[in-house]
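User: Here's a chain of 266 residues. Predict its fold as tokens.
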Amino acid sequence: MRIDSLSGDRRAGAFRRLASRPYARARVLLFPHGGGSASYYRAWDRSAPWDIEFFAVQYPGREDRFGEPVPDDIQGLAAVLAADLPLDGPPVPTILFGHSMGAVVAYEVARHLTAAGDPPMGLAVSGHPAPALTRPGRIHLGSDEELVEELRRTDATRLDLLDDAPLVRTFLPMIRSDYRLSETYRPSPGVRLRTPVTVLYGDRDPEITEAEAQGWSEVTDAGCAFRTFEGGHFYLDEHRDAVVGVLAACARTASEKMSVPWPSAP
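Assistant: Prediction complete.
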């Protein structure tokens, strides 16, 4: 889990456009980790190519949605997010990307869209075991002190923030809720994806093993690719450009499959 800073940026709905891309041929939706928010992805736009538009997802209960209740489970959260789709703009292919808790949120959104007859053109997941191999946990049931110690142990946020008692009291309910969502998640039977899946993870990430990563191949009939990076659970902080490159390649492949025409160069 990682705590991100609050933002005063208020917009309707769950999806935050990082920057306008009037010539976009595809879009990528970015789902944050547990304890995360849309602001985590703010800098990713600097690595984005001109023809791919990135949107960061804002979960309820944080930043400009701070007062909104968080659903009881991952499936409920995914249903809320899927209800905000489709996005405004031309009908271009959509890729979903989620890190850590965001991986299973993105997966469940993909299942919602598939059941509705409008599946995404790609799903990329990062730093999380396959849904059927999700690790149970009881951290969300611990005391506030135990929860803070867990954040210290996992280097989830800056230590000076954890020493700020009023700030910690503000964030802890949201952090506990995200731990609950993650630790109690179990995939429900039913919809199988028809979407290609790309799995990314750090080679020193204690939250996922190679076998747990390989398990993602069981969720789709459209094939599964794997990419390993040097680093731990937040390897993407050091490899942002490379990760954005992987997502852009997925998006461009999707646009070619849909025969989205190349626009005139800006």
